[in-house]
Design a protein that fits this description.
It contains seven helices and nine strands. With about 325 residues, it is of the alpha+beta class. The strands form three sheets. A four-stranded antiparallel sheet has the order 5-6-8-7. A three-stranded antiparallel sheet has the order 1-2-9, covered by helices on one side. It is globular and about 55 Å long. The chain binds zinc ion.
Length: about 325
């Protein structure tokens, strides 16, 4: 076993412990990071995890939706997240966690790009940035992997085809990051351009680190995780129909975060071309010309300190090490 492999294994064990202990250990570590150079206040009790009921007891009917690709209307295909990519499954009893994480990294490298320090560059010569693209999702610019952009357009088409479109109007969203904001041996799906955060200031992450735990919605006793977020259940349900996994289900209860864990080859049913596209097609959101706007400036992740008491926002999200 090489030193690198040994370090990887040690890191994974630490990560697994972190996972089963909710994020107590992580909270302590990041609290220290956030308060570097200052006297640390007494730790506040962690918010209790909220119950995670089914997204919608009676799944609503979504009419078949399609998007315009290369001038043709192509049918979107509903499909689920792949279980081997869901982080919570890597630490289940009887699972070889090292192997599971390594396999998930290999798959993401092959499909979405090689991120230095994780996986093998032989699996993909390009970094995730190479495959990134800026699109508009529900009117908000977001930079993601090109294939995931297709999945997002399917989600948007489905939202627009149901009353869900009128139930929520987010004002911010974030996609790809060029530094790994996850602490430990894991790597954030944001790095691969396959994760999306919607309105971090209104959709909580009560299992994350301060200041996220201090959000008023995290202090409230609730009967459902959906009571700790602005986004409605209907949106979660529709994302999940098109290959996205919602981290509200994870111990972090990261309700702003979706990650595409479906099969990128299954996003569209290319055998089901609907009709010639018109220029005013309902889902014809062509990508803008600039593929690399600096939604998240590249650079060292520790450059901007978290300011205790500052309003929750993307800056704090990036530096707190949440996914
Ligand atoms: Zn996220």
């Amino acid at each position: 076993m090489s030193n690198k492999r040994a370090l990887f294994s040690i890191g994974l064990v630490a990560f697994a412990l972190l996972s089963v202990a909710t994020s107590e250990a992580e909270a302590g570590k990041h609290g220290k990071t956030a308060a570097a150079g200052a006297t640390e206040p007494a730790a506040k009790p962690r918010p209790a995890l909220a119950p995670d009921p089914p997204a919608e007891e009676t799944p609503r009917v979504i009419p078949p939706v399609s998007i315009v690709v290369d001038g043709a209307q192509v049918r979107c295909r509903e499909h689920a997240a792949q279980p081997f990519l869901i982080r919570g499954n890597w630490f289940k009893k009887g699972t070889d966690s090292n192997k599971a994480l390594a396999e998930a990294i290999r798959y993401r490298t092959e499909k979405y790009g090689y991120f230095q320090g994780y996986g093998n560059p032989k699996d993909n010569a390009h970094p995730p940035r190479f495959y990134s693209e800026t699109v508009k999702f529900m009117g908000l610019p977001v930079t993601v992997n090109q294939k995931v952009a297709l999945a997002l357009r399917c989600v948007e088409a489905a939202l627009n085809a149901t009353p869900a479109k009128d139930e929520y109007h987010p004002h911010s969203a974030g996609g790809i990051r060029f530094a790994n904001t996850y602490r430990g041996s894991e790597i954030s799906n944001h790095v691969y351009g396959i994760a999306l955060d919607i309105e971090p200031d209104r959709n909580t992450c009560c299992g994350c680190v301060a200041p996220w735990t201090e959000h008023p919605l995290c202090q409230r006793r609730v009967t459902s995780i959906y009571d700790r977020m602005a986004m409605p259940k209907s949106w979660v349900a529709i994302f999940e129909r098109f290959g996205f996994y919602w981290l509200g289900h994870d111990v972090l209860q990261d309700t702003m975060h979706f990650e595409f864990l479906g099969d990128p080859e299954k996003i569209l049913d290319r055998s089901a071309t609907v009709a010639p596209a018109t220029s005013a097609g309902p889902a014809s959101s062509a990508a803008p010309a600039n593929p690399f706007p600096a939604l998240v400036p590249p650079g060292p992740p520790a450059a901007r300190p978290v300011v205790p008491g500052a309003p929750l926002g993307l800056v704090n999200l990036l530096d707190a090490g949440v996914r």
